[in-house]
């Protein structure tokens, strides 16, 4: 019997959209989300845009500042999530992000320039990690986005590295 | 529906509008998502007591917001309540102060119900009723898998946070109240234990 080849363990990351954080906060489950993410073995990453949407933006509005501070204290300052900026240097990544942008623009009947690359930061981030041969779990709620991501990434055979989970699945586990 | 094809009197409108909030809105939203369902299915899916679902459906049928699905009966005896229900209406309210036109359909009735919730009230407080009616229209596209939340926020010039709160509340409308079910369960268990306790004491 030959010796077993040592197999390199594939790293897995979870990239979350702002919808999970906002939904958890709305249901008063921010603390539980923080515990859930810290207990999880999978590293959770958020793009810079998500931090801006959940903390920096609403903090300026008096009605939402309390929520924003709570999210900042329990999610971002505890380092249960890693804030990462996407890398646009790779041409293939940008091409795929652009295809998702075009798909969304076509679906919604809006001009492509309205859907900016910055809106799809978490898709770009997912592509960055998949390029590094990591498995990615994307967590978000949008059905339109879900269809577009699946269509585009399936055509580039990326789906074996990608799992898409709906926000409600994680909320139910809290 | 024929009731909607003509202009109706304010008295009828007063009777109609409460039907678009609370438990009625929940049932209408559930029917809009699933196309058709019977009372028992609604009761199980929304974790609502069957008796209150029957009562609400009866009221909705009176105002003709819900009708029986033609030619289909699930119950063996074809009783009222085992009938398959469906909803299809369009209510247009015009010339309200600050809002030229609101269109309420089964697809956006849950969005209309937000007016009685804190997220909806805050949104109206910040952006006005005009933008809220635009959100109602855009939510139809969202539920039809045409538009993502970030585009809605852009279109309304609102924060993504606000839009996600509204969408979360709408989706929460048809989420069964798990906690209360558990609570009922625990309460029943406690009652049973108390009963057992009193029996043993005797």
Q: If you had to describe this structure to a student in words, what would you say it looks like?
A:
The complex is a heterodimer of chains A (174) and B (202). A five-stranded parallel β-sheet of chain A has the order 3-2-1-4-5. Chain A is 53% helix and 14% strand. The longest helix of chain A is centred in the middle third of the chain and has 18 residues. With 174 residues, chain A is α/β, with parallel strands linked by helices. Chain A has eight helices and five strands, in the order E-H-H-E-H-H-E-H-H-E-H-E-H. Chain A has one domain: Rossmann fold (3-Layer(aba) Sandwich). Chain A is globular. Chain B is of the alpha+beta class and 202 residues long. Helices cover 58% and strands 13% of the residues of chain B. In chain B, the strands form two sheets. Chain B has a three-stranded antiparallel β-sheet with strand order 1-3-2. In chain B, strands 4-5 form a two-stranded antiparallel ribbon. In chain B, a hairpin with a 2-residue loop joins strand 4 and strand 5. In chain B, helix 3 packs across helix 4 and helix 6 crosses helix 7. Chain B starts with 9 loop residues before the first helix and ends with a helix. Chains A and B meet through helix 1, helix 3, helix 5 and helix 7 of A and helix 6, helix 8 and helix 9 of B.
Short description:
Chain A is α/β, with parallel strands linked by helices. Chain A is 53% helix and 14% strand.
CATH architecture of chain A: 3-Layer(aba) Sandwich
Q: What gap, in angstroms, lies between the N and C termini of chain B?
A: 62 Å
Separate helix tally of chain B: 10
H/I helix tally of chain A: 8
What do we call the CATH homologous superfamily of chain A? 5'-nuclease
Low-pLDDT ranges of chain B:
none
Greatest interface: A-B, 30 and 26 residues
SS content category of chain A: alpha/beta
Radius of gyration of chain A: 17 Å
Helix share, percent of chain B: 55-70%
Instruction: State the total count of DSSP E strands of chain A.
Output: 5
Question: How much of the sequence of chain B is in beta strands?
Answer: 5-15%
**Structural class assignment of chain B:** alpha+beta
Percent range of helical residues of chain A:
40-55%
Poorly predicted tracts of residues of chain A: none
| End-to-end CA span of chain A | 47 Å
Indicate the CATH class of chain A: Alpha Beta
- Please count the beta strands of chain B (DSSP E, at least 2 residues each): 5
